[in-house]
Amino acid sequence: MAKHSVATAKKKWPLMLLAFLSISTVMVIFIRNNSDSCNTKIFEAQQTQIHSSAAAGGGNGGNAASGPSPLDFMKSKLVLMVSHELSLSGGPLLLMELAFLLRGVGSEVVWVTNQYPAEHDQVIYSLESKMLDRGVQVMPAKGEKAVDTALKADLVILNTAVAGKWLDAVLKEKVTLVLPKVLWWIHEMRGHYFKVEYVKHLPFVAGAMIDSHTTAEYWTNRTRERLGIKMPETYVVHLGNSKELMEVAEDSVAKRVLREHVRESLGVRNDDLLFAIINSVSRGKGQDLFLRAFHESLQLIQEKKLQLPALHAIVVGSDMNAQTKFEMELRKFVTEKKIQDRVHFVNKTLAVAPYLASIDVLVQNSQARGECFGRITIEAMAFRLPVLGTAAGGTVEIVVNGTTGLLHPANKVGVTPLAHNIVKLATHVEKRLTMGKKGYERVKERFLEHHMSQRIAVVLKEVLQKAKHS
Ligand SMILES: *[C@@H]1O[C@H](CO)[C@@H](O)[C@H](O)[C@H]1NC(C)=O
Ligand SMILES: *[C@@H]1O[C@H](CO)[C@@H](O)[C@H](O)[C@H]1NC(C)=O
Ligand SMILES: *[C@@H]1O[C@H](CO)[C@@H](O)[C@H](O)[C@H]1NC(C)=O
Predict the structure, then answer these.
(1) Which InterPro entries match (predicted)?
(2) pLDDT at 401
(3) 387, 380 in Cβ contact below 8 A?
(4) Single pTM value for the model
(5) Mean pLDDT by 10 residues, the chain (470 residues)
(6) What does the alpha-carbon distance between residue 391 and residue 446 come to, in Å, rounded to a whole number?
(7) Per-residue burial over 316-332, b = 16 or more CB atoms within 10 Å of its CB, e = otherwise
(8) What is the pLDDT of residue 12?
(9) Which of 196, 200, 237, 355 is 20 to 30 A off residue 338, Cα-Cα?
(10) Which of the ligands is closest to the CA of residue 406?
(11) Where are the domains of the chain?
(12) CATH topology match: 68-240+449-469 vs 249-446
């Protein structure tokens, strides 16, 4: 791979990157700062095209409209989507993706946002414009029109547990008429969602759709033990990578360009080994424990006198304003251990593809119950990266231990095992590359958009059946 023309490349790189991203796609990664576990606080990677040429189906993604889709039976069905909020966070973006998939097969889709800020919000404005461009109708969450639509709809999709607040607030006494056609999509397992106020209607809806088996099991346990309620029919639907992400991941020229330029901007050499954690920086995501493990791995390499390329740790998802104390703690650790030249902090960013194209290993170090699903994991695998992940949450359903990556325990006990795994992948080049390849194959087998569509189609069919017979 090229190591030449560093000076000219340096000037060109932001431009090229921009150009590259604007013609293909923009990966929106969302980052929130709450300090708990699943979904919302996560730097959950979502792919969405945020500019209108791509949104209009242009470019080489234009084949999307052709060919049968497993969702074709949804043609001309009226679907009401209830989002608890509208932002660049995992939950709403995922629901938007589904809205576009359904629009693609000719469903009539109406979108309401339950929590709406009082003042003008640029993000909401642009997301709504994007939906309108794609023929999604956007209407106020409250009022007669919303109630009428709910009554008329073939299907109502509530997104996240918090959206449950909308049911009583808006439908009032008509709620029982709507419940039999509600599909409740849940992407979280944080304790404070287990409130009767949010989920009291859960047992009476047509179905619940959850992103991983672990999360589904957790919901079954918690609703029974804490709230004394029973889950409805529950479907586990693993997510899939968008076509746009796969296009970048499978474009070796684009990947090489991105790799060279990102590495140069970080000041690392082409053959250095990059281990990256790509998540909003917060204790729950385990950047602190990752850096400790990274430091231990450097010590191991020194002790064993291993001859290896230089190892680097990349922390993508920094936000000094949001998690100041934790961020300071990470930097203090790096200074104390004198590993400044080996650790790189990258601000939270909308584009993950350049980083995935540039690194050698993804570290998924989410703590406690882990990720609900963890979309960055399948995105990294699409880029043929092995994953070092905590044996928790959705990660264990994605990463095959020993085949597509290596798992280590969550929490402090996982630090040393992770350090050993880092050394293992640094030492065994062949193993690292094979794991990456196996990860890519696994993505191609089960974590693509059309797999997700198939899985969702099965659920929607059943829910429509039930709604009809109720
Ligand atoms: C659910 O409860 C069962 C039995 O109490 C337990 O074995 C299992 O680990 C729990 N699962 C989760 C995800 O909490
Ligand atoms: C990263 O964010 C901080 C503030 O949050 C800002 O001061 C800094 O300039 C940013 N760095 C880059 C490279 O954009
Ligand atoms: C992963 O596999 C390794 C051996 O390849 C094993 O030592 C470790 O316990 C496994 N971890 C989990 C969580 O299964």
Answers:
(1) Glyco_trans_1, Glyco_trans_4_5
(2) 98
(3) yes
(4) 0.85
(5) 40 47 37 34 31 31 61 97 89 93 97 90 91 97 96 97 94 96 91 84 96 95 92 97 95 96 96 96 95 98 97 95 92 98 91 95 96 95 98 97 98 98 98 98 97 97 90
(6) 20
(7) bbbbeebbeebbeebbe
(8) 45
(9) 355
(10) 3
(11) 68-240+449-469, 249-446
(12) yes
Distances 243 to 21, 100, 384 between C-alpha atoms, Å: 14, 13, 16
What distance in angstroms lies between residue 442's CA and the mean position of ligand 2's atoms?
A: 36
pLDDT in the model for residue 63: 39
Name every protein residue with a CB atom under 6 angstroms from any ligand 3 atom.
Answer: 391, 401-402, 407
Tell me the backbone φ, ψ of residue 352, rounded to 5 degrees: -95, -25
Ligand 2 centroid from CA 349, angstroms: 11
**What pLDDT score was predicted for residue 1?**
39
How many angstroms separate the CA atoms of 4 and 22, rounded?
A: 26
Sheet with 137-138: list strands edge to edge: 137-138, 108-113, 78-83, 155-159, 182-186, 207-210, 234-236
The residue whose CB lies within 8 Å of the most ligand 1 atoms, and thus the one to mutate among 212, 221, 397, is 221
Give the full edge-to-edge strand order of the sheet including 405-408: 343-347, 311-318, 273-278, 361-364, 387-390, 405-408
Query: Would you call 210 helix, strand, or coil by DSSP?
Result: strand
Give the Å distance between the CA of 93 and the centre of ligand 2: 25
H or E segment and range at residue 27: strand 27-29
Neighbours of 469 (CB within 10 A): 7
By C-alpha distance, which of 30, 35, 93 is closest to 278?
Answer: 30
Record: fold of 249-446: Rossmann fold (3.40.50)
Per-residue confidence (pLDDT) for residue 65, from 0 to 100: 47
DSSP three-state, residue 121: coil
Stated as kind and residue range, the H or E segment containing 364 is strand 361-364
Q: Would you give the distance in Å from CA 459 to the centre of its chain?
A: 21
* Joined tokens for residue 23: 């013609």
State which of 281, 345, 347, 349 you would mutate to test the pocket of ligand 2, scoring each by most atoms of that ligand within 8 A of its C-beta: 347
The answer to whether the beta carbons of residues 141 and 166 sit under 8 Å apart is: yes
The Cα 356–Cα 362 span in angstroms is 8
Residue 350's pLDDT is: 67
pLDDT at 89: 78
pLDDT of residue 415: 98
Indicate the angle between helix axes 415-427 and 287-303, nearest 10 degrees: 60
Both tokens assigned to 222: 């918690």
pLDDT at 412: 97
CATH superfamily of 68-240+449-469: Glycogen Phosphorylase B; (3.40.50.2000)
- pLDDT, position 323: 83
Amino acid identity, position 285: K
